[in-house]
Design goal:
This protein is an alpha+beta fold. It is built from 5 helices and 10 strands. 24% of the residues lie in helices and 29% in strands. Strand 6 and strand 7 form a beta hairpin.
């Protein structure tokens, strides 16, 4: 694998705050209850990295082929692996944790019975370009273009510049798999292990 941003990469982390920031320099996104995952794709090679740098691709074989089919040939995305519960109305973190199993036969069975989804929220590299120093507003626009034709189980996270909408999301989806909101400064670069709000 030879990308402008190569694994391992420690993801940019969120910092806990008591209230959403004010002003028009922010984009708000849902904070998903899943496994943080960075996707590295270089042609036929695809690597799914956990938050702490470990490989996740063997546990989510159903995502590997889907991501290869839907992502550009050379890219690095940051996002979250989530699993929708059997009722279809909330995320199921307990079922997601069960997907991490040492037996390959069990992994294949769970991939068929409880397939996961990937929700993308940042774009770190595209083709031969490292985007990490670019402002988040530019990275978000590029991510929207890259995922314009994506379909389930690959999703682009919702985003809004409206603080009231973000607050409503939190009230509406609390308990259904939304851990809170993330506020990202439009002019912020991607800084591994540095927090957003």
């Amino acid at each position: 694998m030879n990308l402008p941003v190569n694994p391992p990469v420690l993801p940019m982390l969120a910092n806990r705050v008591s209230a959403l920031p004010e002003g028009d320099a922010w984009i708000f996104e849902p904070k998903w209850d899943g496994f943080r995952a960075l996707i590295f794709r270089d042609g036929d090679e695809l690597f799914i990295q956990s938050r702490d740098g470990k490989p996740l691709d063997r546990y989510f074989p159903e995502l590997v082929e889907t991501l290869k089919a839907q992502l550009p040939p050379r890219c690095v995305l940051d996002g979250e692996i989530v699993l929708v519960g059997s009722a279809g109305d909330r995320l199921d973190f307990d079922a997601l944790q069960q997907r991490i199993h040492p037996a390959a036969s069990r992994v294949r069975l769970l991939a068929a019975q409880t397939p996961a989804s990937f929700v993308a929220f940042d774009l770190l590299a595209l083709d031969d370009e490292d985007l990490t120093a670019r402002p988040f507003g530019e990275r978000r626009a590029a991510l929207e273009r890259v995922l314009a034709d994506s379909s389930a189980p690959v999703h682009l996270t919702a985003a809004t510049a409206d603080r009231d909408t973000a607050a409503r999301w939190f009230r509406q989806f609390e308990g259904a798999g939304l851990d809170g909101n993330v506020a990202k400064a439009l002019d912020s670069s991607y800084q591994p292990n540095k927090g957003t709000m």
